[in-house]
Specification:
Elements lengths: L2 E12 L3 H12 L4 E5 L12 E2 L1 H10 L2 H7 L1 E3 L1 E6 L2 E7 L10 E3 L2 H14 L4 E3 L2 E8 L2 E7 L5 E11 L6 H5 L4 E3 L4 E11 L6 E7 L2 E9 L2 E8 L9 H12 L5 E12 L2 E3 L3 E2 L2 E3 L5 E2 L7 H20 L5 H29 L4 H15 L2 H11 L13 E4 L5 H9 L11 E4 L5 E3 H4 L5 E6 L6 H17 L4 E7 L14 E3 L4 H5 L6 E5 L5 E6 L3 H11 L6
Helix pairs in contact: 1-4, 1-7, 7-8
């Protein structure tokens, strides 16, 4: 019997994989009610996706969930690439500008377990064995029909609906959003195997061969995720014998112990949704995109989709933003999805080269290029998703005064732009003397305004900074927190600033953000720069705030 109007939530999430669990947890952390449903009666026991990249670890830290991941995962310090049995590249992660100088290998089943535990700690709960059977978008919300395991039907209402329900997404299909296929369907043999061999368990090992790629990802205690691209014409088999033949052929290695835990021959079709949002309905993760296996990017990109979307939905439900900010989800994440698509497609082509001349050229050029520090840094930054940016987003902005000194302009232009991931750094609390990471200071459900100054800042500029901080404190307290970052000491004119003040004695963080003296940076809850200004200019900044948040008369 249909139970009309039996339940409601501000956001309804369909799908409780890593993406849906991230979205639901973040909604609750931002003070927004949600209900999350999954048609499976229990967490999947399959290991599925394994690699958790550096940017995703930063996100998990912002969520307050990273510690359990670090305890349970295997830290990977570098990625080695081989051809003809010889190492041609080692991409080292130790020099990354991040609190995490490694990626993490962890079976997806454990990732889901940890994310669900985090959700429970926030007061949320996955409603399992529940299927979404239909939905209808209305002017004031979304009417969603669900069926419980006992056959009971329920209709619930939400302000928004999020489809995190995988590549065969019912939400995407129900909203009529089409998928675009990219390239040809690919075939992979995937397995978890216990191996005794000579290779380090703190690295990924990728072997290039004329017949395809072979990838080893360590899971700890001699257990490895093995991924091999195969061709239909080779008549691949889902057997230990066939897998062992691939390992011998492509890796050229012997093992004193070989024990497959499971094998799966899977077909992957690279696809992307035409739109990530339509009306009150949003897509994230595999519902919006799925990629080749070579880059191990799919789950990570999906978690980042959810992290981008959650704070925007929360503010929308609370009536704290104008429509443009919510619409920016598609404008920001679709280009990122396409960039990941290009990267994984290029990676797949490079490691799967079959032409002897092309493969030989790759084997000679890659070691030469990899030894160039800027190239390796850029390559690793892309793989770890640290340099993905929203610079072209309609909801980011910046101001650079034409009257700024040339050296100041030059440094500012080299610094992080509006839309970029904000860099981390160490600050000292002016009152307690304790060190704090900038990421820690900005870990809040609000935007965080950082105003940089030094003891040498001119008096009239100091007065202008004080005015900006006063206006923000009095009129935008619902939307943002203000933080002052000084040099070695705090100017007396700013000593009574009621918000937290930090010191940057060596001006390390100042220079990291592209300023010798004074500048303004507004950081979003997802760790990207919403707005920057050199020098801090009141009118352009207020105009930007009014373009995002409901107008407050000043």
């Amino acid at each position: 019997m249909e139970n009309e109007n039996s339940g409601s939530a501000e956001v309804i999430v369909i799908g409780a994989g890593p993406v849906g669990l991230t979205l639901a947890g973040e909604l609750l952390r931002h003070g927004t009610s949600c209900r999350i449903f999954d048609k499976s009666k229990e967490i999947s026991r399959l290991s599925k996706a394994v690699g958790i990249h550096v940017r995703t670890l930063e996100i998990l830290e912002s969520m307050g969930a990273v510690e359990e991941f670090l305890v349970n995962g295997v830290k990977v310090n570098s990625i080695r690439v081989y051809a003809n049995g010889e190492k041609i590249l080692e991409a080292d992660l130790k020099e990354l500008r991040s609190p995490f100088t490694y990626l993490l290998d962890l079976p997806q089943s454990k990732t889901e377990e940890l994310l669900e535990s985090h959700l429970n700690s926030l007061g949320g709960k996955v409603e399992r064995g529940v299927q979404c059977t239909g939905f209808e978008e209305k002017d004031d919300g979304v009417r969603v029909e669900i069926r419980h395991p006992d056959g009971r039907e329920e209709i619930i209402w939400g302000c928004f609906l999020a489809g995190c329900d995988g590549e065969n997404s019912m939400v995407r299909q129900g909203q009529g959003i089409t998928l675009e296929r990219v390239g040809e369907e690919k075939l992979y043999l995937v397995s978890d195997v216990v191996l005794s061999w000579q290779h380090n368990e703190d690295k990924w090992h990728l072997f290039c061969h004329n017949n395809g790629v072979l990838l080893f990802l360590p899971l700890g205690n001699r257990l490895w995720r093995v991924v091999a691209s195969v061709r239909p014409e080779d008549q691949p088999e889902e057997t230990p014998e066939y897998l062992w033949r691939l390992i011998e052929e492509r890796g050229g290695h012997k093992s004193t112990h070989f024990e497959p835990q499971w094998l799966n021959l899977c077909r992957i079709q690279h696809e992307k949704a035409k739109s990530y949002s339509q009306g009150r309905v949003f897509l994230a993760g595999d519902a919006a995109h799925h990629y080749n296996l070579e880059g191990n990017q799919g789950m990570n990109t999906g978690i980042q989709d959810a992290f981008n979307l959650a704070w925007k939905l929360a503010l929308a439900c609370q009536g704290k933003i104008l429509p443009g900010l919510l619409e920016s989800y598609h404008a920001e994440r679709k280009p990122v999805g396409e960039e990941v698509s290009r990267m994984t497609g290029l990676l797949a082509k490079v490691v799967n080269l079959k032409n002897p001349f092309s493969a030989g050229l790759r084997n000679r050029l890659v070691p030469l290029l990899a030894n160039l520090e800027p190239i390796q840094a850029r390559m690793v930054g892309k793989l770890e998703e640290l340099d993905l940016s929203y610079r072209h987003s309609p909801v980011v902005g910046e101001f650079l005064s034409p009257s700024a000194k040339r050296r100041d302009r030059r440094l500012f232009q080299k610094g992080p732009r509006a839309g970029d991931r904000a860099p981390d750094g160490i600050l000292t609390h002016a009152r307690t003397g304790k060190p704090h990471r900038l990421f820690e200071v900005a870990r809040t459900s609000k935007h965080t305004l950082f105003i940089f100054a030094t003891f040498a800042t001119e008096p009239e500029v100091v007065a202008h900074l004080a005015q900006i901080m006063r206006l923000c404190s009095e009129n935008f307290e619902l939307y943002l927190n203000s933080r002052l970052v000084c040099g070695r000491r705090v100017r007396s004119e700013l000593a009574d600033f009621k918000e937290e003040t930090f010191l940057d004695p060596r001006h390390t963080v100042h220079h990291l953000y592209g300023t010798h003296d004074t500048a303004l940076f507004l950081l979003r809850p997802d760790g990207h720069i919403a707005y920057r200004s050199l020098p801090p200019a009141q009118e352009p900044f207020l105009a930007y705030l009014h373009s995002i948040f409901p107008r407050v008369e000043i």
